Amino acid sequence: MPLLKVEKLTKSFGGLTAVSNVNMSIEKGELVGLIGPNGAGKTTVFNLLTGVYVPSSGNILFEKGTVEEEKKIIELGGLKPYNVTKQGLARTFQNIRLFKDLTVLDNVRIAMHQNVHYGMFTSFFRFNKFYQEEKQMLSEAEKLLDIFHLKDKKDELAKNLPYGEQRHLEIARALATRPSLLLLDEPAAGMNPKETAALTELIKWIRKEFDLTILLIEHDMSLVMKICERIYVLDYGMLIASGKPEEIRSNKRVIEAYLGEENSNA
Amino acid sequence: MDQFIQQMVNGISLGSIYALIALGYTMVYGIIKLINFAHGDVYMIGAYIGFAATTYAQLGFFPALIISMASCAVLGMVIERVAYKPLRASTRIAVLITAIGMSLLLEYVMMFFVGAEVRSYPKLLSSETFHLGNVVINMQQIYIVATAIALMILLQFIVHKTKTGKAMRAVSIDQDAAQLMGIKVDNTISFTFAVGSAFAGAAGVLVGIYYNSIDPLMGIMPGLKAFIAAVFGGIGNIPGAMIGGVTIGIMETLVSGYGNSMYRDAVVFAFLIIILILKPSGLLGKNIREKV
Amino acid sequence: MKALSKRNLMILGGLLLFYAAVQVLIITGILNPFYEITLATICINIILAVSLNLVTGFTGQFSLGHAGFMSIGAYVGAIINMQMNSMTGFLAGIFAGALAAAVVGILIGIPTLRLKGDYLAIATLGMAEIIRVVFLNLEITNGAAGLNGIPRFTNWTWLFLFTAAAVILINNFIRSSQGRACISIREDEIAAESMGINTTKYKVMAFAVGAFFAGIAGALYSSYFYFLKPGLFGFLKSIDILVIVVLGGMGSVTGSVIAAVLLALITTFLQAFTEIRMILYAALLVIIMIFRPKGIMGTKEITDMFRFRFGNKEERLQ
Question: What is the pTM of this model?
Fold first, then answer.
């Protein structure tokens, strides 16, 4: 059973069908790409997977749990976003949605909230448990920030970070929810080739380090071709091709879909 | 049955007044997404101007109406320039608070200058009444409904058949695009406030004539109810505001007539909450999604 | 046990000193009854402002109905107080009033907190109006005539205790994971949801906590001013509280405290000129929003100013 199985996923807004009959299957540990021209519906798929939109029809089946006996299959369609995150999916946003006026540290700690054990009363009366867990959270958050070279800036307001670091913080924040499946929406947007190369290494590294499965939307083909093991191609809301990077690169329909765009070759 | 028709007649009169006020709310919300809390107080000031015109200047109904409308148009534009324009880039809460502050300011300034006591309008219209069976319709009600209808037709004409009206519609859809198309956004907004406030002023005069008494705090409740009417009809939608106004007026009269008039206000508020929960875009409005 | 850290002990000491000082002033009669009333108003307003700030300033939910919760606390507290006419009755009244307000807060919150911005504001205003009309028509609240002769148990000691408790507890809540969850809702609701925060739950939580403390304030009010009627807790009262929160800074507990004191003093000294005071109030609101929407403290707290002395907040936790 794959980690994520999407069957005939469809989303219509009134008369407009944004996503139509999409099928995807992602095995645990894979690094899969989702590409397509602008407006193809890629972010809509992400929004459907993460509960921001409710599917018009179709299934999103997610295998939750790490221990063999405890594994459960959950239907994600229709769940509210916070619930989807609780099951083990996390995402970043195409247009950065950091908590701009909060510190880097708080951005990460907020994402850790769903795993916090102490409750409202403990917060009011500051029992021991509060201090213990806060200390734990702080060190976990700092460790995470360290990976992204943001530990020194932990008390900076998120809005004051340079663009590249904001994108890194988005990823760090998503990782703080302890996901098993990470959805990255154009993580390299706006980055120069040097930064993109660094990001490519970082993504490979976190996949190993955090035992992640990753689904990635990207326009930058150098990134996609380099790290994706498999690629799904969307156009006008429909899946037009899927397969290994070499296959996709030479796929006629894919090239046609991108006709006029510069990125058909890495 | 007669009682019912009588209530309907009363309700339509009251509703016409709410509709006139609601139009101002809906136009302003449509164009700059602001609930102009001060709108109800412009209505109040309109009533006082009408009072001054008729009591001190001994003018008749129509002159008083025109003067009140014109003055309120100016007042509305001034308020917009002074209090709302500086905050065009601020958060919604900030503008809302400013609108509340403006509303209070108008109320307390009026109280300071004219005192809190109730004033009475002089007799302006004939006390003729018409009888349709057992149902009584008095001249004032006819004037109210007729004036309201005339003004609403005028508004429809302005909005759909004039260049300024087109500009208003454009700015309410996309302010930046309208500006890029050469529309003077600031002037369009001022014009919207002017028209909305003029209508509120008209409503003020009509209320003065109908209910006879005016006081500085008279704008609060009708203002809120007119807002509820605008929401019911679909905020930003002009025909919606007209329908909403009449509906609320009828609802209120029926509750007073058949039920307990003490609960009158509560029922209207409960109605609002139900709309907001069931269909926040109102009768004729449309749902706007935030793009993620 | 970190709660008994050096810093917290110093704060406790300071509070006790302050309490004792004022108590002495009252007992010796230096602080005459007129100023006592001002003090009571200040304390009650602090509780109201800090609790509203939690909802509007920290969680970003614009509530114009806070006075409604105050009225629930006031009436429930007064009725129990009048029935039992004892210290126990007084305290039970406060607790019951607060609880009632919180329950109503949850009931109101669940359907309405899905609304945003202006719509939420009007809905909360509507709710408070409905509460007022209900109290106007119930027998047990004596309708428009109101309740008279409520036993007076509220004194400086109780005011101080409850005010200090409110400020400390709400502050503790804000600087906790739940508090951060609430703040994230204010910052970006969609991002917060995507990071695992059940936004509805925390909006309702903040709303209910705010209502709870407003209820306490209401009960304290009823047992101090002996007399209640529905008109006291209308839209204008909600605006009064909002002005304090906005002036102090939406998102600053310290700001609410400072603003509550400031505005109570202004009210007291302009006592003779009620109309001018109201005009000034309204003008103040407009002027603050145009020129300094952040208010006095913005989102800073008094501890931020002492940061260089006490070291970084996080280091202090260790």
Answer: 0.89
